[in-house]
């Protein structure tokens, strides 16, 4: 870990920002064959001196992982590192992360941090030496947002491509485009202007959840036309801790799944229902075989506003905190309670 101090313009207060690097394309480079590969030394961390920031930057190269290698265990380590930094007087945190699972780490932190200092997650779609590389730019934007007083109390944010998104709703929507991060239904909460954040939406407060361990065996299943119970039957065992189901439309399932779904419920395995739709929220609207009303009556917990991967993180966090029964149901019900 090392510290550098940059002074920019006439500013009143020099903010102390912790940059946690975890890997991902933002820290990778293209080789002679054109393949994107990890680096032994993170170029973003090494070249941070080019940042014209009004900040004191503290750097921690915590991991060097492609984000498909990131698990809730690393997410918890990042959360614990941020809690330690808060106790040490850090004013804000920026995390660089691979974009593939960035939304899951960001939402995990949103659910488990006390929301006392700005925490911003960023990444890149083009590696560090590619033409049009967006890594250093996004890193600088993220630092500006983390250092901005207006960012207080906004929960964990994702800053990419000049936009500020809430970690609760943002999702990766494109495999390669630099404008990949979008917030369906609600839109971004702000934009990155020349050197500061401009917000035009305020988040509703959410309950956070303190955890000191993460459980395993929480699964995510997507429904499809003609689906039967086979995938659910694979999870009908003693190790399954919980399952999120991305249902059809407003939150419905093909009737052939129902006997297997019931077997999981009989085992007291928590089942959470979200929609596989890109926009909207899951609701119990339909009263037919497999419709949302029947699923709710069977005991599935509807979770509104979250996509499948985020609902899985929320279920995992709730179970890791030891929540059960109505407490777990209340925690999962909406993205804001
Ligand atoms: N596959 C890369 C990762 O998530 C993509 C990225 O970083 O944008 O690590």
- Individual helix count: 9
Bound molecules: aspartic acid
Distance between the termini: 37 Å
Number of E-state strands:
17
Largest sheet geometry: 9 strands, mixed
Strand order of the largest sheet: 1-5-2-6-7-8-9-12-13
Which H/E pattern describes the elements? EEEEHEHEHEHEEEEEEEHEHEHEHH
Spans where pLDDT lies below 50 across 5 or more residues: 1-11
Query: Which bin fits the share of residues in helices?
Result: 25-40%
Strand % is 15-25%
| Anisotropy-based shape | globular
Q: What is the CA-atom radius of gyration, in angstroms?
A: 21 Å
Structural category: alpha/beta
Summed over residues and divided by their number, the pLDDT gives a mean of 92
Active site: 99
Keywords: Hydrolase
Family: Belongs to the asparaginase 1 family.
InterPro entries: AsnASE_II, Asp/glu_Ase-like_sf, Asparaginase/glutaminase-like, Asparaginase/glutaminase_AS2, Asparaginase_C, L-asparaginase_C, L-asparaginase_N, L-asparaginase_N_sf
Account of the 3D structure:
The chain is 26% helix and 20% strand. It has 337 residues and is α/β, with parallel strands linked by helices. Helix 2 (72-87) crosses helix 3 (102-112) and helix 3 (102-112) packs parallel to helix 8 (308-320). Bound molecules: aspartic acid. Residues 24-25, 66-67, 98-100, 123, 125 line the site of aspartic acid (ASP). InterPro entries: AsnASE_II, Asp/glu_Ase-like_sf, Asparaginase/glutaminase-like, Asparaginase/glutaminase_AS2, Asparaginase_C, L-asparaginase_C, L-asparaginase_N, L-asparaginase_N_sf. Pfam families: Asparaginase (PF00710), Asparaginase_C (PF17763). Belongs to the asparaginase 1 family.
